[in-house]
Amino acid sequence: MSTLSSTKDRRGSAGLLFATPFLVLFVVLFLAPLAYAAYLSLFQTKLVGGTKFVGLDNYARAVADPLLLQGVLRVATFFVVQVPVMLLLALLFALALDSGLMRLARVVRLGIFVPYAVPSVVATLMWGYLYGPDYGPFAQLSRAVDLPVPRFLSEGWMLGSLANVVTWEFVGYNMIILYAALRTIPGDLYEAAAMDGAGAWRIAWSIKLPALRPALLLTLMFSVIGSFQLFNEPKLLQAIAPDVIDSAYTANLYAYSLTFIGQQPNYAAAVSFLLGLVIVIVSYVVLLTANRRRTP
Amino acid sequence: MPGSPQFTRRSFLAATGVAALGTALGGCGSSGTAPAAAVAPVSQADIDKAMATPTELTFWTWVPDIDQEVALFQRKYPAIKVTVVNAGRGTPAYTKLRTALQAGTGAPDVSQIEFQYIPTFTITDSLLDLRPYGAEALRDKFIDWTWGQVSGQGGEVWAIPQDTGPLGLLYRQDIFDRHGLKPPATWDEFADAARKLHAADPQVFLTNLAGNQAAAWHGLMWQTGAKPYTVSGASDISIKVNDEASKKLAKFWGGLAQEGVIGTEADFTDGWYAALNNGKYATWITAAWGPVFLAGAAKSTAGLWRAAPLPQWNAAKPASGNWGGSTTAVVKTTRNPIAAAIFAQFLNSDPESAKLFATKQFFFPATKALVADPGFVGDTPAFFGGQQVNKVFADVGSTVDPTFGWPPFLDQVVTDWTETVGKSLTAKTDAVAALDQWQSRITTFAQGQGFTVR
């Protein structure tokens, strides 16, 4: 008995030892700033009058803030439209690559993945140039063939243009996750299916898709977080479309503007926490829906 | 904010007798109040001692090659070592400075600050009043309006002017010739020319008023005689961005935008640079730093541009505004106030150093001596067909109103402008109505920050 327990102890302390670097970084770089932000969100600092404790006033204000609501609704729309398109594309590419029927599969795989290796700032600057209404290649092409110039950066198109940039950036990333999951499916399942007379489509539908469910759920969770925290792309396109992307275009951009333009870091902290809460709720709803569908 | 500033300031004003001057020059400044102790001049003996004591100063600036000017200072004061740090230009630099000030550590001794941002830092009591270090003796060296910009409402001297940007008009001589236009003397003539030019050639616009450039708008407000922001006391502010003068401005530009005879695209973007090069715009309403900038940004149009003063609202009473330019300010947390203050003063008032800014960095000067210097105003750049461009802007400089002031929360004001007035220009909607929205947004913000808005 004693030998066993001491081995357990030793194992436990070794585990703790291995986890320590992570835990230290986790506490210093994640929990501590989070706690500090929570602390800040309970105060109010004014240019005239200084700092005072206001309890949950900032949260009360944020809940009723039309600019925050508008930002959250906009990223929610973005999520509902962009994420299905992106994941469907990622799924199609992953299935095509996995089917083994594609020529130059390695080149294609790399080609789809490369945009993810491009920093999102660079990607957005590049797309900002492509979208340009005067000198962008699309505009020049349209003019050359006497078609109306597409207004990628106009109010009506902007969300779609942003969705396109994000899709371009992240299809490859999601594809790799799905593709890796596909590679773990044992080959004998396919053989058995083939023996039973299943074709490629039937195999994809009845074996691959069900096996992909956990991986799909993972990519979906990442997408929830990514969509609701949309920041880099709108922030950068703001420079070339200042009349469309205002300082509260997305919820994250709003928090940023509150801090660095409005000098209201306290209120921004409250806004950030509420945004975090929204993300938790949406993630939970997504999980719940997915799990309910799993149980017949 | 420190307590009971009211009494302190009043007694200090009475004691020094600069009350009238302070109100006249800095009715616009910030609400920062100078403690009585700061006004007592530092003796020359103390200054001499400090300047001979080995000291290190940190100087945040975005000015390229400023080492040359700093070297002049160090030649005169070998005991003082100045470390130049490029902390970014404009807003990013201010964000860093604010962060350092809030953290209570890491702030520089001396910092580059644009004129319009001085009140943003005096409201938080972050700048050192330079009067005790002899700054007032420099007043006459500097162009009147620049001194007005660096003066606080209590007569404080918050910074020393370095470069300026009085507004003028750069225009394409070739396009003007082709369409029989001459530089418009009044805004009415300007509007007529805009309509005529665009009708004659739908590809060309007389000018572009960028919907993202609140600084240019403020320069034009300045010319029109608007007094949008007046801070008085520690917490009172009057906000009038939609007064009669501003409404006249909004009606004028909003009208031209709605007619579609001017451009409203964002400036300093790829499209805008291309437009300057390919003749989409026949003029650029810009500041005195514009000519040098344009010569670098639109190389393909060398020799085609000329400079003229801004069109006027009242030709009998020429006026202009300012866009850009900056100052050197001493950060209040410095542990070496004397050395820092002397450095800020030397850098911009020493004749050799000031001249170097004009000849090496191509800054448009802030000193009276340089804008009268034949070597400076007589320069005839080939880009402008040999015209004495500096002379045009030097003459404009004397017509800039010295009492225009800035709000203590400029970033918010600028963002709100872009989202109301700027947007209305681009969207061709009612710019005067947008002015009211702008007014109401700033008012709400100011109240939220604890100001009493009158």
TrEMBL record, chain A:
Family per similarity comment: Belongs to the binding-protein-dependent transport system permease family.
Matching CDD domains: TM_PBP2
Gene Ontology annotations of biological process type: transmembrane transport
Pfam family for this entry, one: BPD_transp_1
Occurrences of domain ABC transmembrane type-1 (ranges): 72-286
Keyword Cell membrane: yes
Cited InterPro entries: MetI-like, MetI-like_sf, UgpAE/MalFG_permease
Species of origin: Lentzea alba
Transmembrane regions: 75-95, 107-130, 157-182, 211-231, 267-290
Subcellular location field: Cell membrane
PROSITE patterns assigned to the protein according to its UniProt record, in alphabetical order: ABC_TM1
Record protein name field: Sugar ABC transporter permease
Keywords: Cell membrane, Membrane, Transmembrane, Transmembrane helix, Transport
Automatic annotation (TrEMBL), chain B:
Listed InterPro entries: Bact_solute-bd_prot1 (IPR050490), SBP (IPR006059), TAT_signal (IPR006311)
Name of the protein described by the UniProt record: Extracellular solute-binding protein
